[in-house]
TrEMBL record:
The gene is Adk2. Keywords: ATP-binding, Kinase, Magnesium, Nucleotide-binding, Nucleus, Purine salvage, Transferase. One of its GO terms (biological process) is AMP salvage. It comes from Drosophila pseudoobscura pseudoobscura (Fruit fly). Its EC number is 2.7.1.20. The active site is at D302. Residues 38-340 form the Carbohydrate kinase PfkB domain. It holds the Pfam family PfkB. ATP dependent phosphorylation of adenosine and other related nucleoside analogs to monophosphate derivatives. Belongs to the carbohydrate kinase PfkB family. GO terms for cellular component: cytosol; nucleus. This is Adenosine kinase. Pathway: Purine metabolism; AMP biosynthesis via salvage pathway; AMP from adenosine: step 1/1. Binds 3 Mg(2+) ions per subunit. Monomer.
Length: 348
């Protein structure tokens, strides 16, 4: 497979995504209504949403967090692994104070970040609106939207991609640069290394199905929650509401490497995680938290993937990977934003 020793983990995991500075605050319901948003929305900002970021900073006790789905997952994986620079992250930022904050926070979390820098565009931001145990996201991709494939073609970056053993990209990145996704996916296929992807949000299946279907034949493991899986099924015209059946259909979609059958991992909030393989569906229970323990569900899905990846890159079994994903998600929910405290306590 490769000539690297199992102890040499530096750079084995490459992720591409949208680096965003999360601006997180507790807001009243009428704040959501003002911006025509619903609880648990995950949307891209339109012109009418642009004042939201300054309003959060000026009018609420907003916190800054290094965000973006893939960057979150890789930070969580790094926290659990406890060894810096296992994960390499690519994305695009501006040349501004927000980019400096992002870089500092990502590197202090152990990530090896290789941002593409666009001088004339601001760094992307994401409004994280917390209403009770719900959170709504409104992302202004800004510079993150400007990632170009030539960044991956630079010799240092190309070497990092070529030398990785695992690849993870979010569906969100389909809105930015599908050619980059296809290039990384093709590298993974050529080197017979796992390529993992996330359905990310219902709007991806609703509006970006063509590029999603183009990359799906390369995908070895697909993650999603129940809303994302249902959106995919609806967009495909599948006559089913049954999450298990949707998962079976996901794994049965065309695949370029039949030697590694696709796996679907679907989360359902506090209901069991479904592990769907060609001829089996397994359930993994989620530890239910008391209401008073739930601080913020923001980032729970990202944390699940991060926990999963932390074990997957160590060659652990899928059940261990999923249990670590559940552990990480449960930990994150007890903290504001996609943040963690103390040393990880996952027991295999």
């Amino acid at each position: 497979m490769c000539d690297r020793s199992s102890n040499d983990r530096e750079g084995i995991l490459v992720g591409c995504g949208n680096p965003l500075l999360d601006i997180s605050a507790i807001v009243p319901m009428d704040f959501l209504q003002k911006y025509e948003m619903k609880e648990d929305d995950a949307i891209l900002a339109e012109e009418r949403h642009m004042p939201i970021y300054r309003e959060l900073v000026d009018g609420f006790q907003a916190e800054f967090l290094a965000g973006g789905s893939v960057q979150n997952s890789l930070r969580i994986a790094q926290w659990i692994l406890g060894q810096p620079k296992v994960a390499v992250f690519f994305g695009c930022v501006g040349e501004d104070e927000y980019a400096d904050i992002l870089m500092e926070k990502a590197r202090s979390a152990g990530l090896d970040v290789h941002y593409q820098i666009k001088k004339d565009v601001p760094t992307g931001t994401c409004a994280v609106l917390i209403t009770g145990t719900h959170r709504s996201l409104c992302a202004n991709l800004a510079a993150a939207n400007n990632f170009t494939i030539d960044h991956l073609d630079q010799p240092l970056n190309k070497a990092l991609v070529d030398n990785a053993l695992y690849y993870y990209i979010s569906g969100f990145f389909l809105t930015v640069n599908p050619p980059s996704i296809m290039q990384v996916a093709a590298t993974a296929l050529a080197k017979q290394r796992p390529f993992l992807m996330n359905l990310s949000a219902p709007f991806i299946s609703q509006f970006y199905m063509a590029p999603l279907l183009a990359v799906m034949p390369y995908v070895d493991i697909i993650f999603g929650n129940e809303a994302e899986a249902h959106a995919f099924a609806t967009a495909q015209g599948w006559p089913t509401e049954d999450l298990r059946e949707i998962g079976k259909r996901l794994v049965a979609l065309d695949k370029l490497n039949p030697a590694r059958p696709r796996i679907a991992i679907l989360t359902q909030g506090c209901d069991p995680v479904l592990l769907i393989q060609r001829d089996s569906v397994e359930e993994f229970p989620v530890t239910r938290l008391a209401v008073h323990e739930i601080v913020d569900t923001n980032g729970a899905g990202d944390a699940f993937v991060g926990g999963f990846l932390s074990q997957f890159v160590q060659g652990k079994s899928l059940d261990v990977c999923i249990r670590c994903g559940n552990y990480a998600a449960g930990h994150i929910i007890k903290n504001p934003g996609c943040t963690y405290t103390g040393e990880p306590q996952f027991v295999e």
